[in-house]
From TrEMBL:
It catalyses: UDP-beta-L-arabinofuranose = UDP-beta-L-arabinopyranose. GO terms for biological process: cell wall organization; plant-type cell wall organization or biogenesis; UDP-L-arabinose metabolic process. Keywords: Cell wall biogenesis/degradation, Glycoprotein, Golgi apparatus, Isomerase. This is UDP-arabinopyranose mutase.
Length: 372
């Protein structure tokens, strides 16, 4: 593991850094990469006060350069193998799913994860968007998954609950995940990329909303914040990439598992602001090779997650996740042998998580919500 730090006082852009950044000592930024992290220069005014956890994918002998002035840890595959031993088999290789190792080794309450081809976007007024600050605001305010508010996020300045919204639900529920969006290159699957190669997302929607209980969504991991204490053990990005029959479903798999568990435990998920600028379209033909089985399998996966129920005895994220792994093996194992392997990896992930985050830090949340 490599590490480095430097005082903000000697950093080139120190003057631009806010004096008291939100959650400075309570949040880690996790970045998966195979290349030099020059993109951090654009993010320096927003990211420099925070600790970075960089997970290097690919060749561990390759040196990754990080701009000066950032406080960071860098882990490569050799580090992962050394730290986790045989349990390192649950961490994907040659896929951005390797980022979840950073979630495991963090000791902070909150995580923000971003891809290295994502840059600072501008709002419609031309102002740079501080994506991290907006994620923090989302995470620090409640969600409303049990009853939809037509003004979207009622806790946002200038908004409130509309007429007819039950007063008994206005306290909301803790927000576990903040799902951000992207301008420029859309997050499309390979078939859509192929038929719309020039399409760009230019539509900025100034809104944040809670995803309703019982509703799934395709989570994208390139601009994502979450409360590690509340939902961390469920943010496993699965077995993808090298040696696996599927790729590019890592974040979506984590999103489906996470949402089922959040619904059970009475936790909230927000989507919408903030936007980042996604700069680089991946090759649709390469993507198709990674995705094609997933495109077929998702027609089985979505009904599975829509019908999953977790027993009331599952009062922690870990217990929920182990129960979910059993149901994956029992029901999705019939779809393909891969899901038996994935279910075993889900158990290994929880075992490794608990080893690095000993008992007493178990993510226990009593199931809550409106009467059923």
């Amino acid at each position: 593991m490599a590490s480095a730090s430097a005082s903000p006082a000697v950093a080139p852009a120190a003057a631009a850094v806010p004096a008291t950044p939100m959650l400075k000592d309570e949040l880690d930024i996790v970045i998966p990469t195979i290349r030099n992290l020059d993109f951090l220069e654009m993010w320096r005014p927003f990211f420099q006060p925070y600790h970075l956890i960089i997970v290097q994918d690919g060749d561990p002998s390759k040196k990754i350069n990080v701009p000066e002035g950032f406080d960071y840890e860098l882990y490569n595959r050799n580090d992962i193998n050394r730290i986790l031993g045989p349990k390192a088999s649950c961490i994907s290789f040659k896929d951005s799913a390797c980022r979840c190792f950073g979630y495991m080794v963090s000791k902070k309450k909150y995580i923000y994860t971003i891809d290295d081809d994502c840059f600072v976007a501008k709002d419609p007024t031309g102002k740079d968007i501080n994506a991290l600050e907006q994620h923090i605001k989302n995470l620090l305010t409640p969600s409303t998954p049990f009853f939809f508010n037509t003004l979207y996020d009622p806790y946002r300045e200038g908004a409130d609950f509309v007429r007819g919204y039950p007063f008994s639900l206005r306290e909301g529920t803790p927000t576990a995940v903040s799902h951000g969006l992207w301008l420029n290159i859309p997050d499309y699957d390979a078939p859509t990329q192929l038929v719309k190669p020039r399409e760009r997302n230019t539509r900025y929607v100034d809104a944040v909303m809670s995803i309703p209980k019982g509703t799934l969504f395709p989570m994208c991991g390139m601009n994502l914040g979450f409360n590690r204490d509340l939902i961390g053990p469920a943010m496993y990005f699965g077995l993808m990439g090298d040696g696996q029959p599927i790729g590019r479903y890592d974040d979506m798999w984590a999103g489906w598992c996470m949402k089922v568990i959040c619904d059970h435990l009475g936790l909230g998920v927000k989507t919408g602001l903030p936007y980042i600028w996604h700069s680089k379209a991946s090759n649709p033909f390469v993507n198709l090779k990674k995705e094609y089985k997933g495109i077929y399998w998702q027609e089985e996966l979505i009904p599975f997650f829509q019908s999953v129920t977790l027993p009331k005895e599952c009062t922690s994220v870990q217990k929920c996740y182990i129960e979910l792994s059993k149901q994956v093996k029992a029901k999705l194992g019939k779809v393909d042998e891969y899901f038996n392997k994935l279910a075993d990896a889900m158990v290994t992930w929880i075992e490794a998580w608990d080893e690095l985050n000993p008992a007493g830090k178990e993510s226990a949340v009593a199931p809550s919500g409106p009467p059923k």
